[in-house]
Amino acid sequence: MTTRPTEDDLVALFTRADLGGDQRLDLMEFTLVLDELGLAWTRAETQDRFERADGNLDGYISFEEFRAIMESQGWAGGPLPAAGA
Ligand SMILES: [Ca+2]
User: How far, in Å, is the centroid of ligand 1 from the Cα of 22?
Assistant: First the structure.
């Protein structure tokens, strides 16, 4: 399947990973998302992306922050902008 995730998919993914049900992901929950997506990021890469995604530096990934990092990785719904160049 080559279907690109939609916003609903992102919400579902976020909700499934949000084990605490507090509408934000900690590093462990963020790691679950990556596992679900089948991404083979190393622990260091995961930590690095988590910290980049945590725009307000509160130690958690909100849905807005989650969506932003997913978009930056090309998984957002809708047409992707042409890669820069
Ligand atoms: Ca945050």
Answer: 12
